[in-house]
Amino acid sequence: MAENVLEIRHLKTQFFTRKGVLPAVDDVSIEVPAGKIVGLVGESGCGKSMTAMSVMGLLRHPGKVVAGEILLCGRDITHLSPRELAKIRGSEMSMIFQEPMTSLNPVTIVGKQVEETILLHEKCSRAEAKKRVIQIFQEVGIPEAEKRYNAYPHQLSGGLRQRVMIAMAMVCRPKLLIADEPTTALDVTIEAQILELFKKLRDEIGTSIILITHNMGVVAEVCDYVYVMYTGQVMEQAETFELFANTRHPYTKGLLRSIPKLDEKTDRLYTIKGVVPNLLHLPAGCNFSTRCGECMERCGKEQPPLYEVSPGHKVRCFLCQGACGTAAPEPETLRAAETGKEGV
Amino acid sequence: MLKKIIKRILISIPVLIGVVLVIFIMLRIVPGNPIVTMLGEHVNQQTIDKLTVEMGLDQPAYVQFFKYVWNALHGDFGTSYRMNRSVTQMIMDAFPYTVKLSILAALISWTIGVVAGVVAAIRQNRILDRLFMGTALLGVSMPIFMAALLLQYVFAYKLQLFPISGYEGFSALILPAIALGWNSAGSIARMTRSNLVEVMQDDFIRTARAKGRTEAGVIVFHALKNALLPVVTMMAIQISSMLSGAVLTESVFGIPGIGRLAVNAIENRDMPLLQGTVLFTTVLIIIGNLVADILYSVLDPRIREVK
Ligand SMILES: Nc1ncnc2c1ncn2[C@@H]1O[C@H](COP(=O)(O)OP(=O)(O)OP(=O)(O)O)[C@@H](O)[C@H]1O
Ligand SMILES: [Mg+2]
Fold first, then answer.
1. pLDDT tens digit string along A76-103?
2. Which domains are seen in chain A, by residue range?
């Protein structure tokens, strides 16, 4: 059993805003085993990016990690100085972002921008660095790599820019790559290619990847493990197959049901009723209680802990209390929302 | 790229002709006989007539105009009524002073402006930021002549660190240069600050941090170039406002440059001299704007492409 490249333990990240303390990440624990892809899913605003930014040490004022440990290859990096953090960013862990159009420096050729990462972290001549850039460009599937070295970001398509970003993140062979919605801005064909590339990087370089997405299809496609987040908390976590086969949390069920299916004849697209609560005014008990079709009296009063229903499968729901391994009877849980949207 | 430059130069030509025309017409509307101006009140009619013919003032205005343009194209701006010297020669004598003054003003104000702007941006909303931006606002809003008089009073008259007036060497240029650069420093500082603050919010800055740049590295290697692009353009444009500002500053400090030449010309109704200095300055301003344009497109790869 390979050790974990990354272990997040009881991470709490808060934003100290004028209106109050906003718990963007609330007691999140995530394990990323070596050479695996871990999916982080959830609706907009549930704290996926802030979890990632906390790991990278990239939180900006007024955001702050207030509790928890982040272990990168067994070493706690929560208390590193800015300089020490900068040293491991880009070399041991790296991150790519949702916006390939704006994430590259517009006034520098892309080759130099990737080269910069090498020169920052390794003793290496410019000529050699350039060779490596062209090589990594080829590895991430950039055609005419030598020509592209001299291209400015605006001369490249979104897909190519995202590949440049991946090249930049991967050029120092980091142990951990965090990809924050890397394909959201791209079309489906390019998305599929990029996802293939992630699998290739995992298999050939052995990099562990945290893949942030709100797309359950993407999760099913590439992830080995999944964490479902809601309002800054992990609601359910499991191996991907287990999660899809034995979905336990009402929220996860809702997410899965809102994917349109081709083989089902429905004229309405399913949506989870209600809206994500304001993080400043969370409900008293379970965060999901306001939208949950199976909400019990207890749910409005107490926060459920994470119950381990089978090895590695944890669910934050009272329905799973005491249920170990065997599947509990599944009540028809969530009603179709009355939004009246015509589905496909 | 070359095509674009040539196009810009061609566009400048009608502007120039327009300027010459306007100056020409304006100076002809101004009352007063130039020959009387030249020779004094008590000149007799015979002399006036004779000189009028000699100087071609009896010819129709359009002939005079074309003659003037033709000569100007050959570098001949005519003869000063008052001094009886070649205007071209006078401009060439005065020009080095104006150039020295403007360059010094530019160097001082741009350095101070950029440094203050960067510091203010880094220390956003802290004391240094407030202090620098307050001063910059003062810089932008205080008229040049006021700055000039103030500096002259404090540093030359009271403290006697610099000569009050006249050109006796390099040190005489320092106060006028500061006065002249006063506005520019203010606006450069403000522009640098706001651009840098804005650029620091951009996504590629986050990328630079993610690849392992320290905060200082992020600013120096990624933010500055992006933030200073528009500033450089502004600097090139400021060259023209410095030239016009030089008129006031040179008069206050008695520097024998183009500005003072122009003021003298106005006082003496010396039409050829005034025409010459205004035209010459216009050309400089057009060149300044042209340089600004070209600089911007050379520096910014996104604009470089557009043909
Ligand atoms: N600068 C900030 N100031 C205050 N609150 C913030 C700030 N940045 C983020 N937040 C809050 O942190 C919470 C988590 O945001 P985060 O960006 O992690 O969501 P996300 O899951 O990545 O969503 P998305 O799918 O939209 O990217 C949000 O509710 C947001 O309101
Ligand atoms: Mg996000």
1. 999 999 999 999 999 999 999 988 889 9
2. 1-92+175-344 (3.40.50.300), 107-173 (no CATH)
